[in-house]
Design a protein that fits this description.
single chain, mainly alpha, three-stranded antiparallel sheet, 10 helices, globular
Length: about 280
């Protein structure tokens, strides 16, 4: 069987993608650096926008009562995590997802379980991010590293995958993702891990390099998961907010998968990934 190949990208699309990313990057970096209250505020705004996009995605462009409940749930989750505790934020997310499911069923949504899943897809990474931020200077460094890994993965996967083309990674989920892109993203993330180890004087650097590369794979499967949702509902982009990216969900889909993974690894080890040896 001849593998299906992905088309190569136009140089202009990559340039627009990089410029859009550079224009957006200062906001999260500044919020992470200055911390309270800017990080919770930016997290809440981003969560509300992504919930709005997800609600519209699952309802064919309509918003309605279900979308209002979805946005309310993610905002309540962010507020509970920031003002009280991550545990309360997690409970709010779980109970909120159930409320979204009920609202979606009563609103005759075509697939209410997908709408409810969106509440968790958006809310749980927010809980993870704000929990990691509580670790002072190390938490700040961890979040900046996570952002760098996700951005390096995105640019590396796009540049290598669309330049080389080749066999598709998951053609039924995303027609443009390639194995070359997966490798390019992993290499970009590994180099970011190596640079971070040098910056923080972490020795040996190999554990951080390997974890960064592994998170690149997690992030790209997060990208595939959103692609699957968009194909299921017949949508090309979650919205048109960001030139070259589509919507905020399209920009942050990898981060939504990576952030809980980093939180789980941190919880298991009892310390930041940046201190692993």
């Amino acid at each position: 069987m001849v593998p299906r190949l992905a088309p190569r990208a136009e140089p202009g699309s990559l340039r627009l993608r990089v410029l859009s990313g550079m224009a957006l990057a200062p906001l999260p970096i500044a919020a992470i650096w200055f911390g309270w209250p800017w990080l919770p505020l930016l997290t809440g705004i981003a969560a509300a926008v992504m919930a709005w996009e997800w609600g519209r995605l699952c309802r064919g462009g309509a918003f309605g009562r279900t979308g209002i409940v979805l946005v309310g749930v993610v905002l309540a989750t962010v507020a509970a995590t920031a003002l009280a505790s991550p545990g309360l934020g997690l409970a709010t997310a779980l109970l909120g997802a159930a409320a979204v499911f009920i609202a979606a069923r009563q609103g005759s949504d075509r697939e209410p379980e997908w709408t409810a899943f969106g509440a968790l897809w958006v809310a749980l990474p927010c809980v993870s991010l704000l929990w990691l931020a509580r670790d002072g200077a190390m938490g700040r460094a961890t979040l900046l590293w996570v952002l760098a890994v996700v951005w390096a993965t995105d640019i590396g996967a796009y540049a290598i995958g669309r330049t080389l083309g080749g066999p598709r990674l998951a053609p039924r989920w995303s027609p443009r993702k390639t194995w070359a892109g997966l490798g390019g993203g992993a290499v970009g993330a590994a180099l970011t891990g190596w640079a971070t180890a040098i910056w923080l004087d972490v020795s040996p650097a190999l554990p951080l390099v390997l974890v960064s590369a592994a998170l690149a794979i997690v992030g790209q499967f997060g990208d595939l998961a959103e692609s699957l949702a968009k194909r299921r509902f017949g949508v090309k982009d979650s919205s048109g907010l960001i030139p070259g990216h589509g919507g905020l969900l399209d920009r942050l889909d990898g981060l939504l998968a990576v952030m809980p993974a980093v939180a789980i690894l941190t919880l298991i080890q009892g310390r930041s990934i940046l201190t692993w040896q």
